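During the second year of the project, the team shifted from modelling isolated chains to modelling whole assemblies. The rationale, set out in the original proposal, was that interfaces cannot be judged from single-chain predictions alone. As a representative example for this report, we include one of the complexes processed in the last quarter. Its constituent sequences, exactly as entered into the pipeline, are reproduced here:
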Amino acid sequence: MAASIRVRAVLNGEVAEVQTLIQHPMDTGLVKDAKGEVIPAHYIQQLTFTHKERTVFLADWGTAVSKDPYVKFAFKGAAKGDELKVSWVDNKGATDSLTATIQ
Amino acid sequence: MSALRLLLALATTLGLSASAMAADKPDPAADAKALQDYFVKKFPKVAFDDFVNGPYSMNADMRKQWEEKEQFPPYEFALDSGKEMFAKPFKNGKTYADCFANGGIGIRQNYPYFDDKEGKVITLELALNRCREANGEQPYSYVKDEMASLTAYMAYTSRGKRFDIKIPDDPRALEAFERGKEYFYTRRGQLNFSCASCHVQSPGERIRAEILAPALGILNAMPIYRSEWSGMGTISRRIVTCNSQTRAVPLEPQSDEYRNLEYYLSYVSNGLPVSGPGARP
Amino acid sequence: MRYISTPSVMKKIVFAMMVSAVCAGSARAASEADYLAAVAAAESANKEAGRLRNQWTVTQAAINAAKKAAESGNLDQALKSAQEAEALAKASIVQATSEKQRWKEMEIR
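Output from the structure prediction step:
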């Protein structure tokens, strides 16, 4: 289900600018549903961006990150046409990944 | 002399009764012009087409954040699923495209319209659910994600097209417009707010942390991704929530009152482009 | 005169307050009949507001609070909440009725 990730990576001079939007409920475990029952915590624990075997961005997340998180960062050392792999793992063990091409 | 005086008197009487008649008969075109003029005068720096961008047209700081966000808009997921849903055939093999003019593409600006057979206003959300029911499918909730995704896609295919709401010369259509206007200006709820209290009197001002959007063009941006909701909202959801925030018990989505309100609000925004789906804080 | 009268007025006020406090204290506790009548009045007024398409969320909340208090046996509180609900419902009716004409004052022409 690679549909949960959207990535745009654009090379700007020698810096690659990466924007990502991930679809995820990011439930904190503190919120109750309409029936008054607690919605169990369900959140992304680790988000990784890999460029040529090198981890260029690694995030250890907790429950404080919003639903459908958005991430923007930049890194050096990429060339046009390079592949950038994005993957996340959540606290229920679910995972998703996507490989984008740097433009 | 006396003949002339009589003629003058007659002309005056006629003129008076003519203007009295004009005041009695609803004049949507004049109402729309008055409201548009009001906003243009109140916000001389805002370009006319920019009113569809709600609070962003009135606050430079918010606008900057929004422009950044629009490069990667939060409604993208809804848009993708809406596109998929729109193309997926019903159990009987037909699709949404069979229910709408031009296959449902680029037609958002014509909704709502007045249906002379039913004698009522038909909104896009209502038409979508009727399309589902006519094809043996369960209707969607008017305030949930599926409806928002479908309307997001339909709005997206109509972006830039100018609202072109028609009010036929039918007393029932004029009545619907008038009732919509009445609803818009009527105070309700314990907080004694009308729609106009916020969206005519105070656009650009803050209500708590939010910046109020102008009534003009407010529906052109629908449906919206509200960060506050962390999700999409339909026109129905927006109106229902407005009601409950003033501590009024909301009516049923797509009740006659809401349909008339949408008719009024859309008509007065004629000429403004579709900008939906939108993103709001 | 002033110096004499002021304390005497004060005394009278204090006395009146004491009397009313005693009276309130000795007033009989709300009976179930009082509560039932009050909640029925609140519900019928709220129904009328519904007919005018102008119910307030707080009215139903007060009715619910009254019922909850009655269930737990606190009839004084139940009566109070039911009366509040009726007052809110009546206010919503007044609002709906007066707005039938008054909305025009806000209209942009």
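Residues 6-22 of chain B have pLDDT under 50 and may be disordered. The radius of gyration of chain B is 21 Å.
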